[in-house]
Design brief:
single chain; alpha/beta; Aminopeptidase; Glucose Oxidase, domain 1; nine-stranded mixed β-sheet; six-stranded mixed β-sheet; about 30% helix; elongated
Length: about 550
C-alpha cells in the first residue's frame, strides 16, 4: 500500500473521530489536531542531522570558526528546502554581527619597571589594548570584591588614576571564591580586579604571578586560542567589554616590586599557604611601572540563523511563538597528545537542541495547514562564550519582542541516566522518561499550565522542576539563551537533561545519545509550540 493512500486513510479516520467527539466527549489534543505530523520527528531524522552537526569535520563548532559557519549553512539549506521564510539580513537566514579581538605583539608593546626595560613574554605579558599606562601603584591583595563574604580589599584605598597591583592565584578557593559565587548575579556577583579597576577609575592592572604559577600561566598565554579574546558588540550584553590594560609580571620582578613594602612576595606566599587574608596599601611612590599594549585588531562576522513559519490567522499571525537552540560548542582541545581525541563534538550540548529544532521544522513542513500564530525558529551562536547570539538578537530583534508571546529554548535533551547509574558525574542527569523544565512558572504561570496539559495529553514525560527555584545554587535559569529573552519580559521554558560526565568534554558524542528520549522530548516541545500558536497565552 502506498504512503499516499495510508496518509489519506489516516486523515479520514481522524476526521471521523473528530466528528464522533462532537457527539460524545472531547478527544485529546492529538486527535483534535490530527495533522500536526508528530511522527515526522523520529530517530532516523534526528540521527541523520546529528551525525553531521556533531561530526569531527565541524571541529567542535567554536564561535567563531569554520565549523560553526558550516553548521549554520547546513541549517539554512534545510530551512530553504522546507520552505521557511528567511528572517536574517538581506533576505537570508543569517543575522550577522561582528566579533573583534586584539592580539598584542612584542614589536608594538613595551613595559618598564623602575626605568628598566622588560622583555616581552620573558619578564611579562599583556592583555587588552590600550595607550601608555603609568601612575602611582596601590596593592589590593587578591583584588576580588566578594559581596557574599563582605570581602572588599579596596576599603580606604584610592585607586582613581592609579595602577592596581594584585597577587594572582590559580586556586579560586584561596581567593575566597566558591561555585556559588560564579552563579551569583547583579549586586551579589563577585567583581574581578579588572572590573573594580574600571569602575574605580584606575588606569591599569598588574598581576603578580608566583613561582608555582608562572610557567603554566605563560604557557597558557602563549598557546591559548584567539577565541579567548574575542569580544562581541556592546549591544550583546549589558556589560561593556573590559578595556583596561592588564600586565602580568614574573616572580623575579614581583620580588623586586614588593621589596621593602608592608608585604613582600615572601610574606604574601606564607599568608597564601596559611590561607590568611592579604592587606592593602599604597606602594612607595618612587616605584614606577609603565607599559603599553599594542598590536593588531581583527573583526570577524558570526551569525544567528532565523526563520519564520507564517501563521494562518490574519489577525494573529503578527504574534510569534519562538523555539530556539544554540548551535555552537567549544571547539578543539588545547595541547592534545598525539592520537588523543581532541574534538569537543557537542552532540548533546547543544547538538541535540540544534537538531531538535530542525526536526520541528521538518514536521511543520509536512502539516497541510499552518497554526494561527506565526512561529520563529532561532539557532543562536556564541552561547558557550557568554550568550552572545541571544544577547545580540534581543538587542536587534527581527520582530518586536512584545509580539513574541513565548520562547521555548532547547539546550541538551539527548542524554539519559540508566537504571542503577552510580557515577558521580551523572548524579543530576535525568532518566530516559524525564526532562528538567526551567522557567515556565517565572513570568507567566499559564505557560506552565499549557506545558503540563500538553505533556499529559501526549508523551507523559516526568517534568522535573528541580532547577526552577529562584534560589537554586546552580542558577541554571540564567545560564542559557532563554535568559536574555526573559530579561526582556518574554515568557520562557528551558528544556534540559542535566549535567553529565561528558559535559564540555570530548566524550559528548553521538554514540552516547538516547534517541528515543530525544524523540519524546522533541515531540513534546513541538506539540507545546503548536498549542501555544493555536491557543495563545493568557496574560
Amino acid at each position: 500500500m502506498s504512503a499516499g493512500i495510508i496518509f489519506r486513510m489516516k486523515l479520514k479516520l481522524c476526521a471521523l473521530l473528530t466528528t464522533i467527539s462532537l457527539l460524545i466527549t472531547p478527544l485529546t489534543l492529538e486527535a483534535q489536531r490530527p495533522n500536526i505530523a508528530l511522527d515526522s520527528i523520529n530517530t532516523r531524522l534526528l540521527k541523520s542531522h546529528l551525525e553531521f552537526i556533531a561530526s569531527d569535520e565541524l571541529e567542535g563548532r567554536l564561535t567563531p570558526s569554520r565549523g560553526l559557519d558550516l553548521a549554520g549553512k547546513y541549517i539554512a539549506a534545510n530551512l530553504s528546502r522546507l520552505g521557511f521564510t528567511p528572517m536574517g539580513d538581506n533576505g537570508t537566514f543569517f543575522q550577522n554581527f561582528p566579533l573583534t579581538h586584539f592580539a598584542a605583539s612584542s614589536e608594538k608593546s613595551f613595559a618598564t619597571l623602575n626605568g628598566k626595560t622588560l622583555d616581552y613574554e620573558k619578564d611579562y605579558y599583556l592583555k587588552n589594548v590600550g595607550g601608555k599606562v603609568e601612575g602611582e601603584l596601590v596593592y589590593a591583595g587578591y583584588g576580588w570584591r566578594i559581596p557574599r563574604t563582605k570581602t572588599d580589599p579596596y576599603t580606604g584605598l584610592d585607586i582613581k588614576g592609579k595602577i592596581v597591583v594584585v597577587s594572582a592565584s590559580s586556586d579560586f578557593a584561596t581567593i575566597g571564591l566558591t561555585p556559588a559565587d560564579s552563579n551569583a548575579s547583579g549586586d551579589e556577583a563577585p567583581q574581578s580586579p579588572q572590573d573594580v579597576a574600571v569602575k574605580g577609575g584606575a588606569v591599569g592592572v598588574v598581576y603578580l604571578i608566583s613561582d608555582a604559577d608562572w610557567t603554566n600561566a605563560l604557557k597558557q598565554h602563549q598557546s591559548r586560542r584567539v577565541r579567548i579574546s574575542w569580544s562581541p558588540p556592546s549591544s550583546v550584553s549589558t556589560d561593556e567589554p573590559n578595556p583596561i590594560p592588564v600586565l602580568s609580571l614574573n616572580p623575579t620582578l614581583c620580588r623586586e616590586l614588593l621589596r621593602g613594602e608592608a608585604l613582600t612576595c615572601q610574606s604574601v606566599q606564607r599568608l597564601i599557604k596559611d590561607k590568611k587574608p592579604l592587606s592593602s596599601f599604597a606602594l612607595d611612590p618612587k616605584k614606577k611601572i609603565t607599559f603599553e599594549s599594542g598590536g593588531a585588531q581583527e573583526t570577524r562576522m558570526v551569525r544567528n540563523v532565523v526563520a519564520k513559519w507564517e501563521g494562518s490567522d490574519a489577525q494573529l499571525k503578527d504574534e510569534f511563538v519562538a523555539v530556539s537552540a544554540h548551535y555552537d560548542h567549544i571547539g578543539i582541545k588545547e595541547n592534545a597528545k598525539p592520537g588523543e581525541d581532541a574534538i569537543y563534538n557537542g552532540a548533546d550540548d547543544d547538538g541535540s537542541g540544534t537538531v531538535g529544532v530542525l526536526s520541528i521544522a521538518e514536521a511543520l513542513a509536512k502539516v497541510p495547514t499552518h497554526p494561527k500564530r506565526s512561529l520563529l525558529l532561532i539557532w543562536h551562536c556564541g552561547e558557550e562564550e557568554g550568550l552572545w547570539g541571544s544577547g545580540y538578537f534581543v538587542a536587534h530583534p527581527v520582530v518586536p519582542l512584545k509580539q513574541m508571546i513565548t520562547l521555548l529554548n532547547i539546550d541538551m535533551i539527548g542524554r539519559s541516566k540508566s537504571t542503577g547509574e552510580a557515577k558521580p558525574g551523572n548524579a543530576n542527569l535525568t532518566s530516559a522518561d524525564e526532562i528538567y523544565v526551567i522557567g515556565s512558572r517565572r513570568i507567566n504561570p499559564h505557560l506552565a499550565e499549557i506545558s503540563e496539559q500538553v505533556n499529559a495529553e501526549y508523551y507523559h514525560l516526568k517534568l522535573n522542576y528541580k532547577y526552577d527555584a529562584p534560589n537554586d545554587p546552580e542558577n541554571l535559569y540564567e545560564r542559557s539563551d532563554h535568559y536574555n529573552y526573559a530579561q526582556k519580559g518574554v515568557p520562557i521554558i528551558f528544556y534540559f537533561d542535566g549535567v553529565h560526565e561528558d559535559y564540555h568534554g570530548v566524550g559528548d558524542e553521538v554514540s552516547k545519545i538516547d534517541f528515543a528520549k530525544m524523540v519524546r522530548v522533541s515531540r513534546t516541545i513541538y506539540a507545546t509550540l503548536w498549542e501555544l500558536a493555536e491557543a495563545g497565552l493568557a496574560k
